[in-house]
Design goal:
Distance between the termini: 41 Å
Number of domains: 2
Helix content: 25-40%
Strand order of the largest sheet: 1-2-3-4
Number of helices: 5
Radius of gyration: 21 Å
Largest sheet: 4 strands, antiparallel
Length: about 260
């Protein structure tokens, strides 16, 4: 366990850490024998997460991507003055066969967010209230189960789970109402769910695919082989996501999601 520092370029407060970690995780090797084994395990992992069959096109796109998975230990909000403390791990750690990180798992458990974490894990603090995004120091001295932020995280995580339980109870009650409505044939006039707005262009081609499991949303956008990360601009807000690919050949194809 060590404390690391990094320079934060102006205007790249959000990307600087993630880009550094992507490069680190991209070079991380696991214990599986062949890339074919890793790819098969990765496909299984994606299908379990999305609940959908992953076709070869989506698999090829996902295989070329290296993402960083944040694990929220201290969930930010008004109660924390929008302070967040996150663990950052390799989202392909399981498919790479990386070893279980007992220290990171123990910390997550102390924070009330038990998670099975494999491979290297990086801890960082941010302030994010949608209007401001700042990276703040996190030191080794704070790596203690008795640290104030850990106790606050545990309290908030437990409260979050209790609130989630209340919501689930309401959903079950609504499910009973839905069953009653079905008996009365009140569902007959409801429209069939369609693709998300904007996912189909004027020619009928699908611009992007998406899936959701709980609070996790995955958006997959096919791009040209020459597209680099500098060509992709993504802005995520509380009630909006905007994704733009700036190297698209036609002006009308640059904005993918809005």
């Amino acid at each position: 366990m060590e404390e690391l520092t990094m320079e934060i370029p102006e205007g790249r407060e959000m990307e600087c850490l993630l880009d550094t970690l992507k490069e680190h995780f991209r070079n991380a090797s696991g214990t599986l024998g062949t890339s074919a084994e890793q790819k098969a395990l990765f496909r299984k992992q994606l299908e379990e997460q999305s609940g959908k069959k992953i076709d070869d096109d989506m698999m090829d796109i996902a295989s070329r991507m290296q993402m960083v998975q944040p694990v929220a230990l201290l969930p930010g909000g008004k109660a924390t003055n929008w302070e967040h403390v996150n663990l950052y791990v390799d989202d392909r750690g399981i498919s790479k066969g990386l070893r279980r990180n007992d220290r990171a798992c123990g910390l997550a458990l102390e924070c009330g967010a038990p998670t099975d974490i494999v491979g290297d894990a990086f801890l960082a603090r941010i302030l994010d209230d949608d209007d401001r995004f700042e990276r703040h120091d996190f030191t080794l001295d704070e790596m203690s189960s008795s640290a104030p932020w850990v106790k606050r995280a545990y309290t908030l995580q437990i409260a979050k789970k209790q609130n989630s339980g209340d919501v689930q109870e309401q959903i079950r009650a609504m499910g009973g109402m839905k069953d009653a409505a079905n008996v009365m044939n009140l569902q007959d006039n409801l429209p069939e769910p369609g693709p998300p707005p904007g996912s189909i262009d004027d020619t009928g081609s699908q611009l992007y695919k998406w899936s959701q499991e709980g609070e996790d949303v995955v958006v997959v956008v096919p791009v040209r082989e020459t597209t680099t990360k500098a060509d992709v601009k993504c802005v995520v807000k509380k009630d909006r996501i905007r994704l733009e690919v700036t190297d698209a050949p036609n002006e009308g194809e640059r904005l993918i999601v809005d």
